[in-house]
């Protein structure tokens, strides 16, 4: 049997090496396919708001619109521009995380206040589907983290929960403290994820249904940001029943709580 020298190491036998190379080639083909799919899906995601912005700006430029119609047009342009900025930021964040260039600024974060902010930020979106956002928390834990990035994680999870829930449902944010750890559950009773897809939803670019919009980067980004906070993210889901995304973070301390135990919007 021939042994092959790889980087000064004689470990590989020829057959073994051939099968390793084959495996690597398959991986490259697979990851190229995922990237091709991503490029086609992201192009579509970028094109939709751009088409709308172009259409409305040309229409408004041609004149003859009353102030009310002009206002609607301007609002659509502004909303679609926001959407574009969000998409580009998501892609940039992902690329920074990939290259290990994301710099986090750590400080004390009052998790309950952060979740209350998330509920206010997502309120309009939830209201459009008549979805109620509820926050349950008995204690007031502090974690050491990057407030903006922690916000990004939970905005993404609540955004998904709204996106994949039916009209009129309830999304719960549940905050629990354990020795040395804080748990935040984002609990929806929506579409759910099949067992087959559950392992893959955190893969970059993966989407169960690419026609739903989005980039397939949200959970990949959230997972990596949670890890940078020395935490874990677990997803429990049942198709047709709903999903719980559970984020565990190291607890710094518990502060005295002056708030009501339960908040909800709307
Ligand atoms: P995006 O939301 O942009 O598609 P994500 O990485 O956030 O990307 O999510 C990847 C996929 O995981 C989604 O496309 C969807 O198929 C599935 N998913 C995520 N969150 C949920 C949820 N709460 N309920 C059902 N499916 C979900």
Automatic annotation (TrEMBL):
Cellular compartments annotated: Cell membrane
Entry superkingdom: Bacteria
E.C. designation(s): 2.7.13.3
Membrane topology: Multi-pass membrane protein
Domain HAMP span(s) in chain numbering: 1-33
Catalytic activity: ATP + protein L-histidine = ADP + protein N-phospho-L-histidine
Keywords carried by this UniProt record: ATP-binding, Cell membrane, Kinase, Membrane, Nucleotide-binding, Phosphoprotein, Transferase, Transmembrane, Transmembrane helix, Two-component regulatory system
GO molecular function, one term: ATP binding
Secretion signal span: none
Principal location listed in the UniProt entry: membrane
Keyword Disulfide bond belongs to the record: no
Residue intervals of the Histidine kinase domain: 41-253
Cell membrane as UniProt keyword: yes
A GO CC term attached to the entry: plasma membrane
Protein name in UniProt: histidine kinase
Provenance organism: Paenibacillus crassostreae
